[in-house]
Amino acid sequence: MADPKAKASILEATGWDASMPSKVLSNGAGITLEHLNTVFTALGLVVTTKGYMDYLAKGNVIGSNCHCAREGFGECGGR
């Protein structure tokens, strides 16, 4: 792993041997389901649905295109 802090965080959270991340990255070992969430959490990652990401993207487009919000008048329809 390139980031020593991330590697240390994973090793601490999972209790793995220091060689385990290299084994996982080289397909010499896998991540069991019991450790999957722990690894994600140690890396600051979360699993979400595509639908939720689409919802966030649509909200960002609506917000960035709203004339009222850009002019400082609050949300659309508020003036």
Classification by helices and strands: mainly alpha
**Average pLDDT rating:** 85
Individual helix count: 5
Alpha-carbon distance between the termini?
52 Å
Low-confidence stretches: none
User: Which bin fits the share of residues in helices?
Assistant: 55-70%
- SSE pattern: HHHHH
Main pleated-sheet profile: none
Roughly what fraction of the amino acids lie in strands? under 5%
Total number of strands = 0
Which geometry do the CA atoms define? elongated
Please indicate the count of domains.
2
How big is the Rg? Answer: 21 Å
Structure description:
There is one protein chain. The protein is mostly helical. It folds into two domains: 4-43, no CATH class; 48-79. 61% of the residues lie in helices and 0% in strands. The chain has helices spanning 4-14, 20-25, 33-43, 50-65, 67-70. The longest helix is centred in the last third of the chain and has 16 residues, at 50-65. The N and C termini lie far apart (52 Å). The model has no long low-confidence stretch (mean pLDDT 85). This is DNA-binding protein.
